[in-house]
């Protein structure tokens, strides 16, 4: 069987979507051929039965050109596929609607986000199956949804021996975005530092921005940390 995947970015080193990279490797083991269409492509080393197509975002192509590339590349691969798997973006499902009218394939969507938009509602009607990490990650009622968990690669991420330390360690891992409300944790720890608390501690933020507003939030966090720990604390 042949699988067609539509995703935002294919890059094993991407701070946010790199965790999806090993899915491609696993799909390649289970399908005869896998075609991946991504808005942008970075570093990869996938098996020979995986074909990779970029819409050109990493090359600076504008939205109009990327849309044209999508229809061109999708048309070449859709009719060769048995299953089409859309990763996260309902807009891709809607854009592919004209092809569904000519030839119906098995369609699946992975979606893990609390927002319920009209695009998601329409995409839910078009696909056969929906996969989500948890109930909080898919709030639209649907008989098509299957909750799978986070699909973490446990061969890469696994517990190590505990390191005993008097230092109290706080850790955030994930996308740097306003919806994550990381600033609240920074402010709370700033209040802790200004109090009579004497225990040594550290706070690590592991991740990166993805959307335009995320980059603004990333800059805001850096300014906030500077203000709290170098200005406000000394007042």
How does this model look, in words?
The structure is a single chain. The chain is elongated, with a radius of gyration of 21 Å. It is built from seven helices and nine strands. α5 (118-126) links the parallel β5 and β6. The N and C termini lie far apart (66 Å). The model has no long low-confidence stretch (mean pLDDT 89). It is an alpha/beta fold and 235 residues long. It is 34% helix and 22% strand. The strands form two sheets. It has a seven-stranded parallel β-sheet with strand order 3-2-1-4-5-6-7, sandwiched between helices. The chain has a two-stranded parallel sheet with strand order 8-9.
Topology record:
Layout: E1 2-10, H1 21-30, E2 33-41, E3 50-54, H2 63-78, E4 83-87, H3 90-95, H4 97-102, E5 106-110, H5 118-126, E6 129-132, E7 145-147, E8 168-173, H6 182-194, E9 201-206, H7 212-230
Parallel strand pairs: 1-2, 1-4, 2-3, 4-5, 5-6, 6-7, 8-9
- The structure class reads alpha/beta
Q: Helix segment count?
A: 7
Strand content: 15-25%
Order of helices and strands: EHEEHEHHEHEEEHEH
Question: For the CA atoms, what is the radius of gyration?
Answer: 21 Å
Specify the helix fraction band: 25-40%
Overall morphology = elongated
* Average of pLDDT: 89
Largest sheet: 7 strands, parallel
List how many beta strands DSSP finds: 9
- Largest sheet, order of strands side by side? 3-2-1-4-5-6-7
Give the distance, in angstroms, between the N- and C-terminal Cα atoms: 66 Å
Low-confidence parts = none
Features:
elongated; 22% strand; 235 residues; 7 helices; two-stranded parallel ribbon; 9 strands; single chain; alpha/beta; 7-stranded parallel β-sheet
């Amino acid at each position: 069987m042949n699988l067609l995947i539509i995703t935002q970015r294919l890059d094993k080193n991407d701070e946010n979507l790199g965790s999806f990279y090993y899915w491609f490797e696993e799909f390649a083991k289970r399908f005869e051929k896998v075609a991946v269409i991504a808005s942008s492509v970075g570093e990869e080393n996938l098996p020979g039965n995986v074909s990779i197509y970029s819409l050109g975002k990493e090359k600076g192509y504008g939205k109009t050109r990327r849309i044209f590339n999508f229809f061109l590349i999708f048309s070449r691969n859709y009719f060769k596929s048995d299953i089409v798997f859309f990763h996260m973006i309902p807009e891709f499902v809607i854009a592919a609607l004209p092809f569904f009218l000519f030839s119906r394939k098995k369609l699946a969507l992975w979606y893990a986000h609390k927002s319920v938009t009209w695009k998601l509602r329409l995409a839910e009607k078009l696909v056969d199956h929906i996969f989500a990490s948890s109930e909080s990650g898919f709030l639209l009622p649907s008989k098509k949804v299957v909750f799978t968990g986070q699909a973490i690669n446990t061969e890469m991420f696994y517990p190590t021996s505990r390191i005993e330390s008097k230092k109290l360690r706080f850790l955030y891992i994930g996308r740097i975005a306003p919806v994550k409300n990381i600033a609240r944790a920074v402010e709370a720890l700033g209040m802790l530092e200004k109090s009579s608390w004497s225990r040594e501690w550290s706070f690590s933020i592991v991740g990166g921005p993805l959307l335009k507003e995320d980059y603004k939030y990333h800059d805001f966090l850096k300014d906030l940390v500077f203000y709290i720990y170098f200005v406000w604390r000394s007042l």
